[in-house]
Amino acid sequence: MAKIKACVVGLGNRGYDIIRGVLLKNDDIEIISVCDVYEDRIARAAEKIKEAGSEPRGFMDYKEALAVKGLNAVFIFSDWSSHTEIAVYAMKQGIPVASEVGCEYSVENCLRLVKTQEETRTPYMFVENCCWGKEELLATSMARKKLFGTVVHCSGAYAHDLRNEIAYGHINRHYRFDNYLNRCCDNYPTHELGPIAKLLDINRGNRILTVSSFASKSAGLEEYISTRGDATEEMKSARFAQGDIITTVLTCAHGETVLLRLDTTLPRSYSRDFTVRGTKGMYMQDTNTVFLDGDEEF
Amino acid sequence: MAKIKACVVGLGNRGYDIIRGVLLKNDDIEIISVCDVYEDRIARAAEKIKEAGSEPRGFMDYKEALAVKGLNAVFIFSDWSSHTEIAVYAMKQGIPVASEVGCEYSVENCLRLVKTQEETRTPYMFVENCCWGKEELLATSMARKKLFGTVVHCSGAYAHDLRNEIAYGHINRHYRFDNYLNRCCDNYPTHELGPIAKLLDINRGNRILTVSSFASKSAGLEEYISTRGDATEEMKSARFAQGDIITTVLTCAHGETVLLRLDTTLPRSYSRDFTVRGTKGMYMQDTNTVFLDGDEEF
């Protein structure tokens, strides 16, 4: 089989780490084109790829990066706000797309993605790594074997203390700063919703009927910054729109409820809090527990 | 100090257990009147009280029970649907009330309780034992000492596998059967909301602004009954209105969100899942964890 000739757009933490940890370790893939809006990131990624024996061309304009002849795929790891534009353009060029999550800000643009895919028939993959999480795969496999009986409720969270990354966003060139400054929403639901959607057969017979979201006040980032001796004036004067905890409840056509939580600006340990509840048992990631029905009442 | 002369209405599991485990162990209290709609329960309670040296009068009509001269208090442990009627009547007689939770079905009747108390000035106490739970008291004390910083979110649950008690309700004379057959709601929110309301100063400066509840489908009880060899025809033909998991989100005037869960008809271990989230730390009952902020990102 000929190698997949790939373009990588977005060479920050996520893009660089996946080049190093995944793509360069895969003999079926050759990276022939890389793109970022920062020159030093292009140089760093190109250097790493050269070490592995290939010589990619570097670009600051994604359209030029996608014009390199012979591309079979583009991996998009750039700023959230740019995913759709790049993906739509690539599909129109006939270049298959793998797009990192944190994807889109409006329903209109989601529809644009879907319609472009349907019109062009270019493959598009929304890349949600937690669908391959060990615990999520275990719980989904148990659910499919009916070990939990009828599943009636699932919950999960993106619970990750990102205060440092967000607060220093303009220093470390991370787009989350502007998002948290100006938006209030569950900006990253797919870590938990991806695996839950598979488990509940969403869009495979089942579907989401209603979405209801609730935001707590925003206090975590501002209090965090107030304790940092090295905070800039811009950081100190920032008033963040993003609530600390976003609680979202979904109801599904087959009667299940789904509870999601965005939880990224308060102190805590990392967790996806993946939970499956059924008539014969439950799975609970936070305590690493499987509970199967017995004859006892507790 | 003279002894409190008490009437106990409702002598089922909760009433009998509190007589035996709490009231009879308190030298300041003498039970002089007991009431239930079942004669055998009256006899059982009277017998237990006699063993402790007192001779209560027994009644099947609560108005007669409350007419016993010299009463200083009534404890109400009867069927949920009867609490308001008995409490309002007692307050009008000037008899102070302690009422068990699972209290009222309508806003109108809640207002009736409040107005009767305000008009009569008779003391009324809504008895929520979990306000004195060790973990809830610990977390509340830590919150008041500002160890969690600004509290922005709390959650909790009444997570208790009651399938046996509910399904056999007409056999064991438990009112939950009819409730689960005909209602769909969070029928028991105070185990978690009581302590959370204290912690968040609800009605002490803060207040609840919105209440939004979501029900999953109802599958737990019917599947449970289908596995029971001794199920009656009435149990087998029951189609329960009550959803298995009720998720409720509250928003508060001071910007906090509160998440509640009723979770009583699926297999699980007991939990109240009490969780407090603040800008400097968290408390999590399910894992028995206190997490206080450090300088590390995880």
What is the secondary structure topology, with strand pairs?
2 copies of one chain form a homodimer.
Chain A lengths: L3 E6 L3 H9 L7 E7 L3 H13 L5 E3 L2 H4 L7 E4 L6 H10 L4 E4 L6 H14 L3 E4 L6 H11 L6 E9 L3 H5 L8 H7 L7 H10 L8 E8 L4 H7 L6 H5 L7 E8 L4 E7 L11 E4 L2 E4 L4 E4 L6
Helix pairs in contact in A: 4-5, 6-9
Summarize the structure in short.
The structure is a homodimer of 298-residue chains. By secondary structure, chain A is of the alpha/beta class.
Structure overview:
The structure is a homodimer of 298-residue chains. Chain A has 298 residues and is an alpha/beta fold. The first copy, chain A, folds into two domains: 4-127, 3-Layer(aba) Sandwich (Rossmann fold); 131-292, Dihydrodipicolinate Reductase, domain 2 (2-Layer Sandwich). Chain A is built from eleven helices and 13 strands. Chain A has a seven-stranded mixed sheet, with helices on one face. In chain A, strands 3-2-1-4-5-6 form a six-stranded parallel sheet, with helices on both faces. In chain A, a hairpin with a 4-residue loop joins strand 12 (281-284) and strand 13. In chain A, helix 4 (83-92) runs parallel beside helix 5 (107-120). Chain A is globular and about 60 Å long. The relative contact order of chain A is 0.12. The model of chain A has no long low-confidence stretch (mean pLDDT 96).
